[in-house]
Amino acid sequence: MQVTETLAEGLKRELKIDIPAGDLAVKLDDYLNDMKSKANIKGFRPGKVPVAHLKKMYGRQAMAEILSNTIQETTQKAVEERSERPALTPEIDLPEEDAEKILAGDADLSFKMTYDVLPNFEIVDFGGFEIERPVVEIAEEEVDTQVSDIAKNNTPFEAKDGAAEDGDRVTMSYLGKIDGEPFEGGADENGQLVLGSGQFIPGFEEQLIGTKAGDEKVVEVTFPEEYPAAHLAGKAATFDVVVKEIGAPGEAAIDDEFAKGLGLESLDKLKEIVRGQIEGQFGQMTRQRVKRQLLDKLDEHYSFELPEKLLESEFQIVWQQVEEDMKRNEKTFEDEETTEEEAKAEYRKIAERRVRLGLVLSEIGEKNNIQVTDEEMQRALYDRVRQFPGQEQQVFEFYKNNQQALASLRAPIYEEKVVDFMLELAKVTDKTVTKEELENLVAEDEDAA
Q1: What distance lies between CA 355 and its chain's CA centroid?
Q2: Which of 14, 34, 104, 320 gets the most CB atoms within 10 Å of its CB?
Q3: What processes does the entry annotate via GO biological process terms (predicted)?
Q4: pTM across the whole model
Q5: How does pLDDT run across 182-217, given as a tens digit for each residue?
Q6: What DSSP character marks residue 248?
């Protein structure tokens, strides 16, 4: 194998690799001799098939496999001998006009490989980073408020004979129609609706006020222009409603019996769980704020050339999300008071930051031997599988057989472990804030992202 460097400009590399046809012929002979001992071909005894016959029948196929393996092996060896770290898998350029001659054994294997190398940089002393951790102290009133909200969502209703009023629950059957024709998803036999809750199409609930059990009513409404189902958005519709029962709201006593009705042993246990949920919610926001400060400080310390193809790949991911969001929200660049060119420039800066910080975090993790354990990967995989009820086996097999998909599960775990490692060494001080102050801080970070 002869390796010739044809380009070394910044992070870009281009190598020309030449492998003599004689070396490929030796590999082909070895391949066919190995096949000879295993081949079972009609007209020949096992192990007695002439190599020339095998070459005639399978030579081209064998050479194609040898070329694929040789290219993979030589590219890996070439990079290792140069002690370089490609940012992405090298691109291989094998001229098509030479392929036939090479397959036939009449030409040397000669190809180019191009790649970007990862940049070299020094790890800063992040132990001196000063990070302020905003912490919300959970007041008992906050817990009581959320417990009261739970009680409201579990309000008992008792059947009544009178007319439906605001706050009552109507049990009904209904059939929705557009232009006199029923539409998909517009029917229910035992639908329940609390009047005044705003759960149905605007105007629907108001027309049920005053109805009684046994009444039949045609409700006329117009679907909002921004209704999620595009085939219904903005269209006038009627609903043939049969009222089955009117239920008056009772009052849920917030006590041990109420908690038991939710499957818990006591009111104290319910409050404990609610407090934990609130702490978890604010804990995530605190983590988000702390991580943002850490990444901002890293960003201030680093400015280096980025691998072009890695950057372009990240930008395409970011830009695709932008286009999907704009399409879903029916927005244009003009609506956002910008142009496509200006927006691309801004989002490219975001992609540059992501790539740069990703490289820095990866280097810190590697230098400090931070690993993602098999147990952590299994937990992440099972969490992912549970998101697809009924398709668990297919999803599990997809990740099991797809290294790139598994890497997408590993990456966020690895990043969080590196962040944890850095925060243990940084100077982190707690500051008590209100929940409104924490929410504002997080909102500011999201606006700046």
Answers
A1: 17
A2: 14
A3: 'de novo' cotranslational protein folding; cell division; protein transport; protein unfolding
A4: 0.73
A5: 998 899 999 999 999 888 999 999 999 999 999 999
A6: E
